[in-house]
Design goal:
The chain is of the alpha+beta class and 215 residues long. The chain is built from 10 helices and 9 strands. The protein has a 4-stranded mixed beta sheet, with helices on both faces.
Length: 215
């Protein structure tokens, strides 16, 4: 038989819950709530993501609610989106396995090392944060993901790479040129406006000469 905590979370639409929400949803004192959460954590019915934020385990919401690191990244630290190495790997552009979830955020840079993995967020102080970002839905999991050229430009911008052509992209990241998607002229212009960065301008100008993608 489900206890009170399991009952209020069983049909919850979101995969996570805040401690302050539990205080509202469950009757009792602060100490009783603490005890309920502690027991749920011990049985992995709740998984602690950060202070005051928990992922609802599959034993409560069913096997379809399996933890997806890309989905919970935005709950751990928002606003953010999957980018950099994680996005490049998701798009099957880089061959190496990525052992942390890499994101960009409009807030300060931070790293969370928690039981479910390592989540890295790098600051990107730009307006129009979701330019060239798509909402991906996989097996009831939803997350924001940088498209290939956005992820690559984020990599250059955040890691301060002075790349002026495709050579370091192919050699350092080991991306196969044939795997790179087309970059229409209007998308290149949009990226230049988005970053407003000399570093990105130099890179895009350089690859424009190398790639015959057209408009």
């Amino acid at each position: 038989m489900a206890n009170a905590l399991e009952s209020v979370l069983k049909n919850r639409s979101l995969p996570v819950v805040l401690n302050r929400e539990l205080s509202f949803l469950l009757p009792g004192t602060k100490n009783s709530l603490h005890s309920r959460v502690k027991r749920a954590l011990a049985k992995e019915k709740l998984i602690r993501l950060r202070k005051g934020l928990y992922y609802i385990g599959s034993s409560i919401q069913g096997e379809s609610n399996k933890l997806n690191p890309y989905e919970i990244a935005a709950y751990i630290y928002a606003p953010s989106c999957i980018s950099l190495e994680s996005a490049l790997a998701y798009h099957q552009l880089i061959p190496e396995a990525v052992y942390r979830v890499t994101c960009v955020t409009s807030k300060r840079s931070v790293i969370f090392e928690i039981p479910v993995g390592v989540f890295s967020y790098l600051h990107l102080p730009l307006e129009g944060f979701y330019t060239e970002v798509e909402l991906v839905s996989v097996n009831q999991n939803h997350f924001f993901l940088a498209k290939p050229w956005r992820a690559l430009c984020d990599y250059i911008y955040c890691y301060k790479k002075n790349w002026i052509n495709l050579t370091p992209v192919l050699e350092s990241l080991r991306i196969d040129k044939m795997d790179l998607p087309p970059l229409p002229k209007e998308k290149m212009i949009e990226l230049k406006k988005f970053y407003c960065s000399r570093r990105i301008d130099r890179f895009l100008k350089g690859i424009e000469k190398e790639l015959d993608y057209g408009a």
